[in-house]
Amino acid sequence: MTARILSLQTSSRALRSRAVTRLAVGGLLAGWLAASALAATVPAAEFRPGPEADLAIYKSTAASGVVEVLLARVQRSEARLEFSTPHGYLPALLRELKIPSSSQLLVASKTSPNKNYISPKNPRALYFNDSVSLAYVPGADLIEIAAADPKLGVVFYTLEQKLAAHPQLTRDDRCLECHSSSKTLNAPGWMVRSFLTHGDGDVDVLSGLMVSHRTPIAERWGGYYVTGDTGGQHHRGNLFGTEDAARHAAATDASARVTDLNPYLDIRKYPESSSDVVALLVFDHQVQLMNLLTRLRLDTEALAEADSLERTHPTTEAVLKYLLFVEEAPLTAPVGGQSRFAREFASLGPVDSQGRSLHQFDLRTKLFKYPCSFMVYSPSFQALPLRAKRHLYRRLWQVLSGEDVSPEFKSLSAETRAAIRDILLETKKDLPAYWRL
User: Fold this and answer.
1) Which pLDDT value is given to residue 72?
2) Which of 78, 102, 83 shows the shortest CA–CA distance to 93?
3) CA–CA gap between residue 240 and residue 254 (Å, rounded)
4) Are strands 153-160 and 142-149 parallel, antiparallel or unpaired?
């Protein structure tokens, strides 16, 4: 990605108070550093648009992700989308798409087609699993859905919040105006951004930065509510307007620990009472990896069968490093969620014979106990072309076996590499035979 350096003078004019300006300057400087680190993962030239990114082709290609599966089930009367009070189709969608309500994240920034309904008093709620996310705003006309697709990267849908005999999930390609750019690696993808947010939910666009697990905690979650205990680690969450910004500038841990959202909004309008910090950490991680997997798939498919996969090497290395949490921003204090999310997520497994799982959290100095992404089990990973998967498995084996001792993987101890290797051997059934020798 290309990080555009904006002048502090321009940034200052865009803000309306000295307190907000101080916060924005710090955020922008760290944001530039984070963006530069991410851009360095894969050269920008490797993410150049090609025929595979042609939107006309995208729009004319039939989707085949989990939402399409649900649509087919509805048409065969195997599933029914029920409308209920007060959340409309939200409970039915969560149930049918197997999305836990405990994954709820509350976003108060106006960064959605439903922005006219969004404010710190009426935030947008996001819910997610490893293949689909959906957004619900109380009082809004539409529920928004984004689903991983094995051919298209991500496909967007809307569902009208109106009682109907046959509710229609409608594909909505207008979302690509924002969701297919250098920010998403020049392919249809997801974005997680952090903005300084005014009291009405409007964002300061100059303060925005892309978020992944590499982003320092101090620069994350602008525009979001954050509940749970961050161990005093300050962040941009729970800050809306100049007064909050001034309070944050005076005491940087002022927003770090919020356990009750009732003083901020009517939380009864939502299925859950939280915007869980652990769910936020997981979401920050998985979104960028999903985009990287899409990029690797497209780069591989653009090659002829006779072409060497070395041409995809920079993308493969980017996926490998992200998969193994290379350059993950460390936690400087233990983190604890407030909802059921951490417990439910950790139970997803699969587990090896010693009870170990890639879903197990650490939450003291890093996100996961075993730093290899749970997304290796996801539809996005499974959708990789066989050639790309074999190449990635070879590189993964070289690192985990200790054959590759490059300095960039020095954060992985021999013990950690062995544990990850053993977990994968018992839980991934499509590993090459040489893994078992």
Assistant:
1) 94
2) 83
3) 13
4) antiparallel
Query: Among 342, 216, 219, 224, which residue's Cα sits nearest to residue 275?
Result: 224
- Of 143, 127, 130, 154, nearest to 64 by C-alpha is 154
CA dist., res. 374 & res. 368, Å (int): 9
Q: What is the DSSP letter of 396?
A: H
Would you state the structure tokens that stand for residue 161, as one six-digit string? 């919040």
Domain boundaries, the chain: 287-436
Whether 284 and 211 have beta carbons less than 8 Å apart is answered as yes
In single-letter form, the type of residue at position 171 comes to R
Q: Which amino acid is at 271?
A: P
Positive or negative, the CA dihedral 4, 319, 367, 190 is positive
The whole-number average pLDDT for the span 14-31 is 34
Phi-psi region of 327 (alpha: psi -120 to 50; beta: other; left: phi over 0): left
395-405 residue pLDDT tens: 999 999 999 99
Cβ neighbours of residue 340 under 8 Å, at least 6 residues apart? 100, 102
Contact 411, 365 (CB under 8 A): no
Checking if the pLDDT of 424 tops 80, the result is yes
Query: How long, in residues, is the chain?
Result: 437
Burial 344-372 (b: 16+ CB within 10 A, else e): ebeeeeebbeeebbbbbbebeebbbbbbb
pLDDT band for position 221 (50/70/90)?
Answer: very high
Q: For residue 192, give the nearest of 135, 258, 117 by alpha carbon.
A: 135
Kind and range of the H or E element at 229? strand 228-229
Three-class DSSP category at 9: helix
Q: Are 36 and 44 in contact (CB under 8 A)?
A: no
Taking Cα atoms as reference points, which of 161, 159, 143 lies closest to residue 74? 159
Buried b (16+ CB within 10 A) or exposed e, 42-81: beeebbeeeebbeeeebeeeebebbbbebbeebeeeeeeb
- 3-class secondary-structure state, position 190: coil
Q: Which of 128, 118, 138 is nearest to 93 (CA)?
A: 128
Would you state the pLDDT for residue 43? 40
For residues 349 and 419, what is the distance between their CA atoms, to the nearest angstrom?
A: 15
Tokens found for residue 352: 């090896």
Neighbours of 174 (CB within 10 A): 10
DSSP-based three-state secondary structure for 379: helix
